[in-house]
Amino acid sequence: MTEEASQRTRPLWRRPAVVLSVLAVGVAAAAVASTTFVPAGSVAQEADTATEYVDLNYDEVVVPTITDEAQPLGSLVTEIVADPDAAGERYGSREGEGKPWSYAAEATGVVGEGEFGEVGLQVDGMPDGITVGVAVPPFGSNTAIRDAGTELTFGDFVNQTEFQNVAIELNKRAVDTVYGDLDPATLSGQTITVRGAFTWASTTGGEVDHVTIVPVEIEVQ
Predict the structure, then answer these.
(1) Second-level CATH architecture of 50-220
(2) Per-residue b/e over 64-75, b at no fewer than 16 CB within 10 Å?
């Protein structure tokens, strides 16, 4: 029997062309399985100024990063209290070594009176002694959104001022998008769900007893 005839009588799956095709498909499948696909727009675009960075990345990267990574506030804070370093490594991000951790979080609760610059939020499941607030305009120079929603470091900009300006410009954009059609004065007594960022740090230098969420989304129920 000739080689040509031998190939014709082999089962279809054993013929060389088919075997090569199967191998090619297998290699391609293995490559796909080992590849991490990054959704379009999920990688921050570089910018020379804070304003340009926010224009390019706030809607496409910063907000999705925070909302996708947001942890339930009660369980998150419970883990932070139990082991701050482990919780920070698992859920947090920060400007640099030795800086406080910032976290993406989600919380649902009833709005009440709050501290200066925020409304209070009664959230179930919080550890004893820790209260919650939601920032209201203006957000000022709070760095929680920048630190939880980006991977920026001081070295990404020409100086510390411009790096700080990123936090300020992100906060301005958050104010416009969250509170553009929402009057904080109308929230009292309402149940809301808020997604945003907070930094685990004490304003007095003692133990942390209050969390202020800087919102990127608020839903009134």
Answers:
(1) Beta Barrel (2.40)
(2) ebbeebbbebbe
